[in-house]
Amino acid sequence: MTVHVRPPVSAEACPALVLNADYRPLSYFPLSLWSWQDAIKAVFLERVNIVSEYDRFVRSPTFEMRLPSVVSLKTYVQPARHPAFTRFNVFLRDRFTCQYCGAHEDLTFDHVIPRSKGGTTTWENVVAACSPCNLRKSDLMPAAAEMWPRQTPYAPELQDLHRNGRHFPPNFLHESWMDYLYWDTELEP
Fold first, then answer.
1. What's the pLDDT score for residue 119?
2. CA quadruple 170, 174, 179, 184: dihedral sign
3. Handedness of CA 12, 13, 14, 15 (dihedral sign)
4. What is the Cα–Cα distance from 63 to 151, expressed in whole angstroms?
5. Which residues make beta-bridge pairs with 182?
């Protein structure tokens, strides 16, 4: 997989990577980024340390400052122990793949045991499914539809999502972020 590392074009395209006090990103999915305005505000409120900067400046009549590209929190934030149950995290757990046919487009989520049959909206009963498969399965039980998920749905640990996320790095990574991210990427200028 190729990720393009390029200089930002404008100040609007200068997000700051936010690291915890231990210099690990607050989150990978989505990647913990702040707008340049939020990063500067945090600097002035003395909540973060600037780790790296862009070659772009913000100026006022009496002040000039390089835009932060990487900031670290001064106070450690305890990471969540269990990932939140969200549509995105279900897709990430299932590697953005329909659990019935293997498609990667037009994903929805499907209740393996339909809600109309007593199924619940939980990690253990929801899988990623493309729209055509979801419509075909409808409110049928897996045996009646002759459709079984490729993997049994489960409640993932954060490490599961991080491991799967290595296959889906963002389209843009600034070169100053690379020392703090673990994606195996081939960088292009």
1. 97
2. positive
3. positive
4. 57
5. none
Question: What parts of the chain have a pLDDT lower than 50?
Answer: 1-9, 184-189
Residue linked to tokens 């757990």: 93
CA distances from residue 86 to 81, 129, 141, 182, 187 in whole angstroms, order as listed: 15, 15, 23, 23, 31
Residue with tokens 């969540």, as numbered in its chain: 80
DSSP characters over 47-116: -EEEEEEEEEEEEETTEEEEEEEEEEESS--PPPSS----HHHHHHHTTT--TTT---SSEEEEESS-GG
Residue 170 near residue 31, CB atoms below 8 Å: yes
Residue type, 186: E
| Residue 22 pLDDT | 95
- Whole-structure pTM value: 0.68
Cα separation, 92 vs 76, in Å, equals 26
Token representation of residue 48: 């973060």
Continuous segment of H or E residues that includes residue 12: none
What is the rounded end-to-end Cα distance, in angstroms, of the chain? Answer: 15
